[in-house]
Amino acid sequence: MQPRSSSAPIRTTWLVVLLACLVLASGCRSTSWVQRREPHGSLGRFLPSAATPPSPLSPRTMQLLRNHDLARHLEGNPDKLLTGFSEVMRQEPSAEKLFSYSEIAHRAAQQLEPRDDKQAFDLYITSVTHAYLYLFDERFQSMRNIYDPQYRGACDLYNRSLGQALRIVRKHGGLQPGLQHICQVRDQPLEIRIEMRCEHLNDHTFDKFEFASDYTLNGLSNRYVDYGLGVPLIAQRKHRGQQAGIDPYYPKGLSIPLTAFLRILPQDTGGEGQLSSRAILELHDPLTSRDVQVASRQVPLETDLTTPLAYFLQNLEYSDLGAATRGLFRPGRYTTHTGLQMLEPYQPDKIPVVLVHGIWSTPITWVRMFNDLRSIPAIRENYQFWFYFYPTGQPFVFSAAELRDELAELRGLLDPARRQPSLDRLVLIGHSMGGLISRLQTVDSGNLFWEQVAHQPLHQLETDERTTRSLQQTYFFHPNPSVRRVITIATPHHGSSYSNAATRWLGRKFIDLPPVIDGLAKQLHLQAPGALRDGGLPLSRNSVDSLAPHSPALKALRQSRRAPWVIYHNIVAKVPEGKWLGRFAADSDGVVDVASAQVDDVATQITVEADHQTAHRHPRTVLEVRRILLEHLAPQADVSPASFPVLK
After folding, report:
1. Which value, to the nearest 10 degrees, does the dihedral of the CA atoms of residues 17, 22, 23, 25 take?
2. Distances in Å between the alpha carbon of 233 and those of 181, 190, 215?
3. 3-state helix vs strand vs coil in the chain, percent to 5
């Protein structure tokens, strides 16, 4: 038995008030995740709109114009300026002139865009093309100086002009993989083909594209970008009315990051100075590709991983407090789609990390950790993140059974022949009650859970086949052979002192018993009267009951045999004594006592100074999870699941 904190009565009083008010919170909205703004360039400079004057030319371009007597055309017809400077380049090509021509074309496109999209598009692509030649044309290799500010300026011109060209294309419905566009670059045709350059995506995966630079973040404090070439996009996955296969595991409106990169193909024919007639607009997934190869160089892509995530969250159906509250108090009538959800397109070579939220919560609670972890190249290139969403009012043993079934079903869809080794290296991360659900995936129940609820062995009961099958799925289970690590955070391994007589009474008043559980108990009473213990309640009536220090579910979990191939890690939270909450929550995180959160059967265990609700977002927690995930990538001597005898 774990010692009970002396502050428990005070904390219980606060929880009674909290539980009484929860129902009133069901309509509360969370903060906005993104806000739309005017388009801007990759470096944060606002691009001109119809009411904004064109960008000024750089001093070095102005000097070239003066030296060749072309500055007089600056305020007149841009065609004269472009034609005159094109002749100067033809006579004496140089990298400096390529940069200036790109700059002049960009300025001319800005002047024409409000009234002529076609000419503006041609000029923006002309600017992109010449910036590309400045950066990559082998003729100017010896002249290229990456420390020259003009070099970074050429990168910026490439990104800004490409971004504006793509906005025009999208405006006319042409920003879709598989389409082709023809434009004029210095009076020569250039054919541009749009291609998806991701093996795990196809041309028909997305039906909507937005520009990441059009949005500012509100709900996420950390924005992760990589600087290079290309235009970061928000790609919204196409929603299929009749979902099949793994489609139901993708939430509606899922958005992922992409980067558009325009590659100018080598010249087909012609001599030196001949412009290419072909280009490819490549769409890359920054979760798998950080750079592209141009000739013999590796070129980093400009990426934004955070804004597409925030854009998705803005339109997610369970992004408000009400969804979590309904899941707690109305678990049996919860209409929001639950179960495993993938926030990234599935890739067979990546190890799944399954994040399991706690009581009165939703997967939204993981967003900040998810955003931080995905910023680490080694993690995003080797892991894919899945989220388990469940109504938290039901006992955690039932939620664990549903997760067990979901994992088995998804594995059958993804890898029916069980030939993908990455799927046998699953990592589960659980916060609060989610930690108990995660650990239940790695133990053998034997008869322990059934003996807590029944006087007779299951095979002796005269029940119908459906009832027997439901009981077997819930109370009899084996460890999942694919799970190799479990990380628990602020988890009440020995129960929570918040789950006491007062709060359990409130829980039974406010939390509906899910019809599935209630129906199972009633059916068993009819078919096998007297077989159940404790008035016929299956382990516990709801999640508050199941977290009581002496609950049958916790007792059975502690006594169950662990899978020897699983490595456990534990993170304990404790409110700093100097904080005001620490006065009422001594030796606890405000919900779970430190003594209850600690366990002895783990490989590592650390304590972070945080309260229960923020423990999984604490920087030290994220760093510890990061360390564990990187450690998990190293080769290790795995214990074979086949060596684990199963109790009959």
Report:
1. 130
2. 19, 23, 11
3. 45, 20, 40
The per-residue pLDDT for 518 is 58
Q: Out of 7-21, 22-36, 435-449, pick the least confident.
A: 7-21
Render 17-44 in DSSP notation, one character per residue: HHHHHHGGGGG------EEE---B-TTS
Q: What type of residue sits at position 383? A: Y
Residue type, 280: I
- pLDDT at residue 51 greater than cutoff 80: no
% the chain with pLDDT above 90: 55
3-state secondary structure of 424: helix
Neighbours of 168 (CB within 10 A): 20
Residue spans of the domains in the chain: they are 8-30+320-444+483-509+552-635, 59-267+274-307
Taking the C-alpha atoms of residue 404 and residue 399, their distance in angstroms, rounded to an integer, is 9
The mean predicted confidence, pLDDT, of the chain is 83
Model confidence pLDDT, tens digit, residues 122-165: 999 999 999 999 999 988 888 888 999 999 999 999 999 999 99
Using alpha carbons only, give the angle 395, 493, 394 rounded to the nearest 5 degrees. Answer: 10
Q: What is the pLDDT of residues 526-577, one digit of tens each?
A: 676 667 766 554 555 545 666 777 788 899 999 999 999 999 999 999 998 7
Judge whether residue 244 has pLDDT over 80. Answer: no
Range 509-537 burial, b when 16+ CB lie within 10 A, else e: ebbbbbeebbebbebbeeebeebbeeebb
Q: How many residues are there in the chain? A: 648
Cα 613 to its chain centre, rounded Å, is 20
| Stretch 49-70: mean pLDDT | 83
CA 124 to chain centre: 33
**pTM, whole model, 2 decimals?**
0.86
Residue 594: closest CA among 583, 584, 608: 608
Closest CA to 338 of 321, 352, 357: 357
Q: Where are the beta strands (DSSP E) in 406-463?
A: 426-431, 443-444
Tell me the one-letter amino acid at 74.
Answer: L
- Tens of pLDDT, residue by residue over 453-511, are 888 888 888 788 888 888 888 889 999 999 999 999 999 999 876 544 444 333 443 34
The DSSP line for 569-603 is: EEEEEE--TTSGGGGTSTTBSSSSBHHHH--SS-S
Multiple choice CATH, 8-30+320-444+483-509+552-635, 3.40.30.10, 3.40.50.1820, 3.10.20.310, 3.30.70.360: 3.40.50.1820
